[in-house]
Structure formats: structure tokens, C-alpha cells
Amino acid sequence: MPGSPNPPLWLLAEVTYRCPLHCVYCSNPVDYAKYGVELATDDWLRVLREGRELGATQLGFSGGEPLVRDDLEVLVAEARRLGYYSNLITSGIGLNERRIAALKDGGLDHIQLSFQDSTREINDFLSSTRTFELKRRIAKLIKQHDFPMVLNVVLHRLNIDHVGALLDLAVELEAEYVELANTQYYGWAYVNRGELLPSREQLQRAEEVVNRFRERVGNRMKIYFVVPDYHERRPKACMNGWGAVFLCLTADGLALPCHEARMLPGLEFPSVRDQSLRWIWYESPAFNRYRGDEWMKEPCRSCPEKAKDYGGCRCQAYLLTGDPANADPVCDKSPEHAIVTQAVERAEQARVAVATKPVLFFRDDQNSRTLSRERRREPVA
Amino acid sequence: MALADDTVFALARGFRFQWEPAQAAYVLLYPEGMVKLGSSAGEILKRINGTSAVSEIVADLERAFPGVALRQDVTEFLEHAREKGWIRAGQP
User: Fold this and answer.
1) Could A224 and B27 be called an inter-chain contact, meaning their C-beta atoms sit closer than 8 Å?
2) In this predicted complex, what is the ipTM?
3) What predicted TM-score, i.e. pTM, was given to this entire model?
């Protein structure tokens, strides 16, 4: 690894894997149910302090549903005292007048509220809960307490045709930011990929709707449209590089270079129970494993674009080709690019029809145990 | 549009301005992002407080960095910052 890495800037604290929702594209590990005891409040307080000492500025409280933890207010207040800019990434479930007032007093900076769709039917179907009306009420509560609000919607075949209505919903709820994030196919989303991957035509239409909306509202509302990488010919610069800016902390205390990395073979991710964050970031073998380009194979090694996209995503390379050091097969220079184009081809042929009851694995404890027993990693056909 | 001397700027809602020792720079923090500021941008934004007029900010900077006329640089940066949505005219 040439030179010394820059400090981590972005800390994501997945404070719990527990969640009242059962979203079919959840980014938590498919086998989350087998992971042990959550970090205690004091552990989190220490880790937040260590992260800030390293230079981290952005802090996301995520999960699972972070509001499941009743010490969230304590963590938020300490984050503010330390000088983080903090974000609560939430489904809204568990937020009420008392808690939001405490979060405001503690100095939480903004709130990212998820919706699964613009319609009650699909929102409630995809999360396997009755939460649509509740989320609308929570959005009002967030505005009443004067938080900047990011409306987040994960997009896929079953809701991408509703982006117009989703943007209208964002206007109605007075969101300042909208994140329309196409599903990234890891974790639960990978298992359910066959039912979630949108067609090219759907994607094109959605982009047109977003562009027209942008022209209409100008910079009154900021829209992030995250494209699905399966439809691209070059990979994303995942996390801006392995161990470059982003540090994810899991509910049970592992430190990861991205949300998904704990599935990678041959790496022992350090726990904040045993090691300081400084050692983890700068010294641990896991964080140094894919820094720089020494680890690369062809076609990445000699590729002029390797400094731009770092060979794409290690987790995707592993999921789709079995070796995390391979080129991300989203890249059309990858000898295994056909894996991606074939998945997209199948999506082109699939029918858009929630009515025909798609075969989906909802994220819940029982499915988690079943899937980890079967060690199932392949998408359902 | 020329920037009036008596315009008062405040940081936009949800933006925080602070010094970061690890980066040896002032930064602007906002939802989903951060801007690392150059030293002159940092010196200007440090003086944006919702009460000082542009003319006062220019005068203060010219006292701090004597010998240079700064009005044009300052107003250009403020226009840019407003365009970016970092600051807005009026009280905080």
C-alpha cells in the first residue's frame, strides 16, 4: 500500500440489526439473525470519540431501525458534542413527539425517512407492514421540529414506474432532499434480484421523469438519482475505494469498509471490542487488503481507468464471480460481464405484475435462519 | 445582478461551518455531504453570521489582510456560495 491512507470521513453506525420492517431489498446481511450481542452504550460512546479523533465528520445512525435502541438520544447528544454532523436513517417507526424533541435537543442535524413506494398498497406490501399512513404522519412531525428531511426511496421493478408520484409526495411532505436509490444487489436484494431488477425501458422512463421534474422545481429540492450499476458498462467507484473515506460499524461491533463486506471470504474483520479505531483504519490487514492496486488482477491491473473506479466493488465481484479480487463484472472489460447482461436480459422479459404474487424472501428472522442454513446466495430464478 | 453592500447573509438551514484539525481546513457540512474550503473561502464564511453586511465583511477582511482590495473577490465568492445554496440573504 503506497503512502498513508487519508482519514475516514464518513462513519455509519448500524446500531442494531433489529427492525420492525421486512423489506425485500434490505442491505443487512442475509444471515443477520445469527450475529451476537449488540454493542453497549459505552462501547458506542467510545467508538464515536475515537472516530472523531481520526477526523470523521459525517455520522449516520442506521440499522436495522436505529430507533429500536432506547439509548439513541444519548448517542446523538454525544455525537453533537464531539462535532459530528449527524443523520438519523430511519423508517420512522418508533419516532414520536417525545423522542423527536429529545433528538432535536441533543443536536441531531437531519433525518432521512424511507418510503417504500408512493402508494399504500406497495409500500405496505414491500415492507410487509402497515406503515404508509404512519410514515406520512412522521414526515409531518419531522417538519414540525424543523429538521432538514431527506426522503429516501429504494427503486426497483415494482415501484420505479412511480417516480413521478414519489417526487410529488416529496413536495407534499416538504422534503429538501430526495434520494431515489436504485437497488444495489447485495444481501436480501441479491436473493430477490429476479423480482427486483428493472428493465432498461423502465429505467429510461424514470430518468426522463426525474429530469423533467428537476427542470420544473430548480434547486428548491435536491434530487439524487442513484443509477443501478447492472445497466452500466463501467463499474461504480464503490465507496470511493476500499478503506478510503467510509467506515461502517455493525450492531455487534465489527468494523467494515462498506455495509456488505462481512460476507467476503478470507478476511477477518476487526471488532471495536478488541481494537482501537485508529489501529483498525490504518493497520488492520482487512482494511489494507484492497487499498491501492497491488491486489488487482487483469483486466484491472493494466487498465487506464483503475484509478477512477478501483475495479468496482469487491463484494459484487465476489457475489457474481466467486473471487473478490476479480474485476467487478459490471465492467464490459470483465471476462465475466455476461453474468450481468444475462441478469438484465431476464429482467427485460419479466412482467411487471405485483398482482401475480412475486416470489420474494421478506427480511425476517425465520428467513434469515433458513437462508443462512442453506448458505443460499443465488438469486431466486 | 450586483450584490448590494448592505446585503446580510446567513448560512443556509441545515448547514454547519466548522474547523477540522484532521484536514487543517474549514469545512461546510450538510445533509449527505461536506465541502472542504480553501483558506480564503473559509475566512469569508467565518464572517457570515446573519448580522454583518457585505460591506462590513469586506472591511473586516481588509483589516485582517491589509494591502489588498478584496471587495470583488468577496462578492464573487458570496454569489457562488448563494448559487450553491450554502448561504442565503436575510436573517438565520
Assistant:
1) no
2) 0.89
3) 0.92
